[in-house]
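hey m, so remember when u said the tokens were messed up on ur end? i reran from scratch. heres the input so u can diff it against urs
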Amino acid sequence: MFTSQTSSFQDSIDVEERDDFDSEEIAGYNQKSQLNCYYTIYLYQGTRSEASGENVAWNQRRADSTTSHEDFSLTLIDSSLPSEAEPELRTYISRRLSKGALLGGMGNIATVELSIPEESVGCYCCLLEQERSPEQPDADGNGYVICFMGGSEKGLNLFRIELDKYVQGLHCSLQTPELQNLETEVRPYLSRWFDESVMHIYRVVQLVQSNISFLLHAALSQTHVEVINSEERTKADVSRFIKAASLQGLSQQDPTAASLCKAISEDTQSNLVIDCSVSPPMLTHTVSNRFCDDWIQAFLNAAERCNPFLLRQILENFKLKAIQDMNSLKRFVRQAEMSHYALFRCCQFLQGCGNGDVLLQNARAEHSDLPEACSIIAVLEEFIKEQSQAQA
């Protein structure tokens, strides 16, 4: 039993060595082959919507950059793609729109073949619809189609939430078809999509290096992380990393999060502090365990290869393994209520997984209203405490 558990854990860590990730899709992006990133923004107009005189004149001036269908037209506003590749993308987007495959506000990710050095590339596209006029509630809506291209479909799918949020941040800047703020606001914002939506995990690993285990432990245990003497971007990067590594909302019973926060406050656990006034940053109130330490090298290896997609996949595997162990402990605790041997198996499991402190913290919060389970968890906590003292 415990041999297979160890094997499964090693498989999770060694993601960069597995065949399904040892491909151009995720593992192929590294320092030696710099990733090219592109963006494109189109004006989407429903044919039944009434355009103003200014809009009609603007559309006529850009007739060469417009693709029209029975139900809509798609007009290029700006793009970083090569001139020969943009019409190919417009044709692809038009085909998706005509099939109803792009829903307002929901990103869609696929692989597209374009006249670019990569030939095929992952493409995220999202339709941002403008609010319909009260006078024309049934008219086809107008809006903008935002496209981000770079990496692979599989890689971009790992950052779908971040990409959706980044596109929504553009809403307030898209006021008129002419986009008079194109050069001052819209274009710079679109140009930063990869750096802002994909690279934050890489920047955090580069910042803390082997201290990444302390951040992983903080994320699992819901410990607050405070970043001082740093730029706002660094603070935002660390906050997003902690959120991405957290299990909050992923466990079987989400109300555990509130109970866990209460349990942590009762433990008077200190915040993890990252002081960026020195290089490398100095971390205080650090806590880790063997489980988190075992993932350090995997993160460092992926960071050395400058591979943000692989880093995200490793982070997802880290969370998956933690959830699997959490579910195993729940099962053992239920069995231990009826069997002393199951209690012994609980102790063996906690000793072997290297994440006993976090698992018990979560279990205590989740079973707070079950007296029998609480008594078993108390015994297990005492066991872990004795083990820690014996190893000190």
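this time it looks ok to me. The longest helix spans residues 308-336. if urs says something different then somethings off w ur setup not the seq
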